[in-house]
Amino acid sequence: MRIVFFGSPSIALPVLSNLLTAGHEIKLVVCQPDKAAGRGKKLTPPAVKTFAQDHNLPCLQPEKIRQDQQILEQIKEVKPELIVVVAYGQIIPAPIINLPLYKSLNVHFSLLPRYRGAAPVQWAILNGERFTGVTIFQLNEKMDEGPILSQEIVEILPRENAHELEIRLSHVGAKLLVKTIENLKNIEPKEQDHSRASYAPKLTKEQGQINWQEPAEIIDRKVRAFFSWPGAYTFFNGKKIEIISGLATQGIIPGASPGEIVQIDKSGLYVCCGQRSFYLIEKVKPEAKKEMSAYSFSLGAKIKLGSRMG
């Protein structure tokens, strides 16, 4: 099938790669413009652009696709039968969505109508869900509201962070999409039950700050959900520390208060949280330094029992 592919980050690559392996013709790739990254603010191409160049696939990078008058004509020229969208990053206008014979399919990392929006994986972890999944649905002009073609349920593993879960879902979605396309003529799209919809809005950096008054279980979810962006963080002696990984624990230490470091050993730093719970910080990334074990950080920072986070 002749396909135009819309996608930008690395999580879109399993889908693009599987489409090629399945024998589909990728006539055109559309992704976000190059962006400044790193300390040097060097222009860096999206992962999908790099993949397209490595596989000799033509690639377009419109700044604002809804205002680009030429993009529709360029897509028309390759006569696509289908458009596939995975984490593209811009709202695609209706004339493009409805152009191909089989319209446009989106690979979304949740079980729609739950968790519509930009951060479905992160919000599923934040809310303590045990299961999430992948949905293949037809795009329309509304956000993640199009009819569903196929879904697959995926269990969220106990210590899995958002980055790890997204990678797993991207591979599940890649296989599910190929199967869906194979049976496209026989699938009857099913309208979503909009009364069951929930939303997963874009995250902000401010949401990553840890409040040690919260129970350790909630803090653990935040650490997992915010890896690798925006990152869960706290402060020690006025300096920002990103928490890479940790574990919620239980116990009673008389007199301990939220934010207090109550134990230090090679496992890491045990910090008192709300509701008499404790969070073991295992790995950290101190401000302007590399990732390290929390125990190594405690030695370098000369942390003592009774010191406070936050």
Task: List strands and helices in order, with pairings.
Blueprint lengths: L1 E6 L5 H9 L3 E6 L4 E3 L4 E3 L2 H8 L4 E2 L10 H7 L4 E5 L7 H4 L6 E5 L11 H7 L4 E8 L9 E8 L6 H21 L33 H10 L6 E5 L2 E12 L10 E5 L2 E5 L4 E10 L5 E2 H8 L9
Parallel strand pairs: 1-2, 1-6, 2-5, 6-7
Antiparallel strand pairs: 3-4, 7-8, 8-9, 10-11, 11-14, 12-13, 13-14, 14-15
Give a structural overview.
- The termini are far apart.
- Helix 4 links the parallel strand 6 and strand 7.
- The mean pLDDT is 96.
- It is elongated, with a radius of gyration of 22 Å.
- It is 24% helix and 27% strand.
- It has 310 residues and is an alpha/beta fold.
- The strands form 3 sheets. It has a 7-stranded mixed beta sheet. Strands 10, 11, 12, 13, 14 and 15 form a 6-stranded antiparallel beta sheet that branches. Strands 3-4 form a two-stranded antiparallel sheet.
- The protein folds into 2 domains: 195 residues, 3-Layer(aba) Sandwich (Rossmann fold), CATH 3.40.50.170; 97 residues, Methionyl-tRNA Fmet Formyltransferase, Chain A, domain 2 (Roll).
> What is the strand tally?
15
Indicate the low-confidence ranges by residue numbers: none
The first-level CATH class of the largest domain is given as Alpha Beta
Residue share in helix: 10-25%
- Please tell me the CATH architecture of the largest domain by its name: 3-Layer(aba) Sandwich
Task: Describe the sheet with the most strands.
Answer: 7 strands, mixed
Summed over residues and divided by their number, the pLDDT gives a mean of: 96
CATH topology assignment of the largest domain? Rossmann fold
Report strand order across the widest sheet: 5-2-1-6-7-8-9
Which sequence of SSEs, written as H and E, runs from N to C?
Answer: EHEEEHEHEHEHEEHHEEEEEEH
- Radius of gyration over all CA atoms, rounded: 22 Å
Strand content: 25-35%
The end-to-end span amounts to 55 Å
How many separate domains? 2
**Class by helix and strand content?**
alpha/beta
Helix count, DSSP H or I runs of 4 or more residues: 8
Which of globular, elongated, flat, extended, rod-shaped describes the shape? elongated
CATH superfamily of the largest domain: Formyl transferase, N-terminal domain
